[in-house]
Amino acid sequence: MQEKTFTYGQCYEVLDVDAKTFRRWLEKATFDVTGQVSKADSRIKYLTESQVKTLADDHGRAWPPRPAAPVDPESTTIKRSEFKLLDDKTREHSAAIVDLDGQAAEHSRMLTDALIRIQSMERAINSLTEQQTAMAIGASKAAGTIKELQEQVADQDDTIGELERQVQIHAETISTLNEQIQRAPAARKVGKVQAHSDGVPDLPADLVHVATFAEDHGIAPTTVMKAIGTARIPAVRGKWHYGRSVIRVALNGEGRAAFWDQYHQANGFKQCSHCPHDLVAKDEQDQAETAQEA
Question: Global pTM?
Fold first, then answer.
């Protein structure tokens, strides 16, 4: 005789167990249920009666299962009334849930609107922040431009001051030249200056040619002329014959002394027999030479 079988659903019922616990029992069972499926529907699995009994014995379940107690008609009536009451409450709860769903949907719409407004405000704040940053950058650039202009004005002030100083130096030079022009006739009387057919005299004995003096001391003439232009070395300006040339700038004793102070420590400086070209000593020597010639 073929042994009786129980589907898994029937096993839950006769063993009074839930599906999860039942599967755990099967994993620990000593028998194998592989291939125990319904021929009519492969999705339906089953156990034999002996296998169900084994599970009942292993886990303290009565076997064979006790028959269900007879149903009391009165209790059935009570249960029906209870079911009706539960059903009414369920409908009430369902209506309340529907109402809550509606409220939740409304709240969701309100929240979405609030989020949209917040995002709009954030964009506005970001735009204002960018504008403030741009304004700060513009202000910084403006401040830099103002500072640069102030520096340029200060440089121009310095330049104007330098020009005024040079004008003063030129004015003093012109005054010196005027004095020399006034003294020229007296010099020609003592024979110190020889006049030429063009009216330009020879370079006086107390003056030296700038380029020749610079080259004799190993200094570039252009360097000395720059120093004269910036008034670091005083010079006498006029118009004299020097050899076959006519020169307009020369150095007197003061200029030669300033030349020595300016360049005697420069690389390549050549010492001459008159160095350091002391102004007082040179003037005394010139006076002595003039007295001898007289």
Answer: 0.33
